[in-house]
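Can anyone check this?
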Amino acid sequence: AEYMGIEDRMRLELTAARIDSKGAMLPFIQGCLGTLERATEEVKETSDKLLLRVLCGDKSRVLTFLRSANIGESRAAAGRKFELATGASDGFQFSSSSDGVLDNALTWGAYPALTNLSEVFFKAGNLEVGEWEIPEEERVFYRVQVPDGSSKMMPFRKTQSVREAKEMVAKKLKIADAEASPESYDLTCDEYGQMDDEQMLQSYAIKSKSLLFFAPKGDGPATKKSSIVLRVVCDDKSSRDIVFQSTQRISDCINHIGVTMGVLEVSKYELKCVAFGRLHLSHSLGSYSLAPRTEVYFTRRNTSDGGTDCVNYTLIRPRIVQSDERVPKPKIPKRRPHLLTIWDVEEAEVARQLTLMDHEAYSAIEPIELLDQAWTKQKYAYRCANLLAFIHRFNRVACWVAYTILDEPKVRRRAQVLKFFIGLAAELKKLNNFHALMAVLGGLGNPAVSRLKHTKARLGQSSVKTLESLEKLMSMESGYTRYRTALAESQLCVPYIGLFLTDLIFIEDGNQNVVDGLIHWFKWRLLRNAISNVRSFQGSKYSFEPVESLQIYLNSQKIADDKTLYDMSM
């Protein structure tokens, strides 16, 4: 207590009174401060006192004001605390980030937004009441238009949230109902449509002096633009929510992130996510069904040119296998992607498109993603986004199979859907897409599907035999012996990644890094061989023609939980 100022003492008492309603702590605090003789009534009077953190230049002090005190008269006291020359404080103004410049004729209690330890600025100026003092480097101008058609150019702070911007517009333009209820109004723009209250203005790549619309919900200008908020995670694990247009190309998104995060040489960076792996530069963001605030990873591209910013994988090169088969003519569905069903497509074409996408996702997996079991640890998700995306594709296909079967209410139709997926599995086997084959079998083996006895009874003998042979091929018996044999005989294929990951886990867990104080080289040779097996199938390339509408349909399938699927089977 000997070294505490009066403001610090008062702040400690206020804190104790606020968190301890019964007053059990207050006598102890007062005794420590040597203020036990103060009457209880005086302590209660502190509710009329306001503790504010006042910033003046590069100095900051916590000052006490009476709520009933005149703001203009408080300038002299603040001037003495900051050791200003006599009379110099008369040219100073108080301002806050929520209310702008405060009115000298009012009392502190007239501003309910100011609470204990709120931050206010004390600086020289001649701004009008309600104006905001914004540093030039943080200032951006927008023209705000209201429903009556009038507009005004206003300065904003880049780090302001959209909610704070709406409150500022309501006060500046004196819109009474907006001041009382800012959440009943929307701030919209042509580029992004409705703006999210939780986001900062700098999250939107809106040019200075652009037009913003401030209107009650539902009364704003109609716009077809849609936006999405994504959480961007950089290499240093720093993250920030950034708003993108759904129509933006991935290359434009990368440039936007570079400007927002202050990253140079954005041409050496790429975007990845767990659901889809590496996002293609030429694709639009809307072509990926990303949920709001999905984490995307903004990372340096790994190349093999031996540069300083790359990981050299020349020791584990994929073998190159050219496809000699003739390219079949694609069978393009007539409907739009959002209207497609399995009745509009053929098993062979679905198998070809799944194989194209699966192989592309498989080829994107890098050796570093297979180390330290990173795919099993959430904190290392940024390191193995491509691998997690490939695993996510497996789950999406398995769920799509189960959900589509269970979505048919009639037994006869369910049997037809079941037959379709058995035919799809057979086509995937012909293309050596073991990954998607295992996913389809996983969907057919889902407990909610396997209990449909009446549906299975309607299957023909040929479908039953086909299903049994495929299940035998991918069986876990004897450590996937049949599948390993088929894989060894394949050159152009998409392997089932689960088996490779299982082998890596056994090697990692079953062998120590150091034995008798020496590096256990045998373990690292085993790891090297296992990773080489993964890489050996990445050089092959299927020559099918992509069908964009069918790929969009397959990628838009959502994952449902087991409870939802089981309820559908009842």
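Reply from J.R.: I decoded it. Confidence is low (pLDDT under 50) at residues 36-45, 304-317, 320-324.
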